[in-house]
TrEMBL record:
The keyword Transferase applies. This is Thiamine-phosphate synthase. It comes from the Bacteria. GO terms for cellular component: cytoplasm. 2-[(2R,5Z)-2-carboxy-4-methylthiazol-5(2H)-ylidene]ethyl phosphate binds at T132, P133, T134, G168. Condenses 4-methyl-5-(beta-hydroxyethyl)thiazole monophosphate (THZ-P) and 2-methyl-4-amino-5-hydroxymethyl pyrimidine pyrophosphate (HMP-PP) to form thiamine monophosphate (TMP). Keywords: Magnesium, Metal-binding, Thiamine biosynthesis, Transferase. InterPro entries: Aldolase_TIM, ThiamineP_synth_sf, ThiamineP_synth_TenI, TMP_synthase. 4-amino-2-methyl-5-(diphosphooxymethyl)pyrimidine binds at Q35, F36, R37, R38, K39, N67, T106, K135. Pfam families: TMP-TENI. It comes from Olivibacter domesticus. GO terms for biological process: thiamine biosynthetic process; thiamine diphosphate biosynthetic process. GO terms for molecular function: magnesium ion binding; thiamine-phosphate diphosphorylase activity. Gene3D superfamilies: Aldolase class I (3.20.20.70).
Length: 220
């Protein structure tokens, strides 16, 4: 059974934290999902850094997802891939990786979700919630109202694929975001720019657990 975590950490190079340091830091804090994203590396350098990062993630029992490079994910036997709009077609990626691997895709609109829901994928990263400096080609900002609108349309069309909110999300956004019906969140810059990244990870995980438990009780 494929389990989609409620907190996804996306690696992003910074001047003060290497990718390996980021993976070690967040998994030590309890984060159970790493998306390895390094658009700037050659295939050889990407493969080497991804392999080292995956070993760290696996040592801490974290799911390891590779952004974009499907053949590297296949070679390293990663847990899956995340594909953007300009990356490999999810149908082809599924043929390459097999049914047991996780495939996630990026969406910005309900039309994106409607299209992706017909493909063999496991979750959708929907965003951006607000502006984020960690991505250069930014789609239109959704804001809370955008998530509310899209999640309602999903319910109206009986689309139940897990939605991961992404893009500039902060700790105090979590309650409102989870109340829209999203499955989880993806973070990067909020953690790496924090004065105490490990403490922030711990607080985010506690807030997710509290918010999720509250939502479950409200549905009973």
């Amino acid at each position: 059974m494929k389990v989609i975590a409620k907190l996804h950490y996306i690696t992003h190079p910074t001047s003060h934290l290497s990718t390996l340091e980021q993976v070690k830091m967040v998994t030590a804090a309890g984060v159970e999902w790493i998306q390895f994203r390094r658009k700037d590396l050659t295939d050889s350098a990407f493969r080497q850094e991804a392999s080292l990062s995956m070993n760290l993630a696996k040592a801490n029992k974290a799911t390891f997802i590779i952004n974009d490079r499907v053949f590297v994910a296949q070679e390293l036997e990663a847990d899956g891939v995340h594909l953007g709009n300009e990356d490999m077609n999810p149908m082809k990626a599924r043929e390459i990786l097999g049914d047991d691997k996780i495939i996630g895709c990026t969406a910005n609109t309900f039309d994106d979700i409607l299209r992706l829901s017909l493909l063999p994928i496991d979750y959708i990263g929907l965003g951006p919630y607000r502006h984020t400096p960690t991505k250069t080609k930014l789609s239109p900002i959704l804001g809370l109202s955008g998530y509310l609108d899209i999640l309602q349309k999903m319910a109206d069309h009986n689309i139940s694929i897990p939605i991961i909110a992404i893009g500039g999300i902060l700790l105090n956004d979590l309650t409102a975001l989870f109340n829209t019906g999203i499955h989880g969140i993806a973070l990067s810059g909020a953690i790496t720019s924090s004065d105490s990244p490990q403490t922030l990870c711990n607080n985010i995980l506690k807030e997710i657990e509290r918010t999720y438990d509250t939502n479950i009780k409200d549905c009973r």
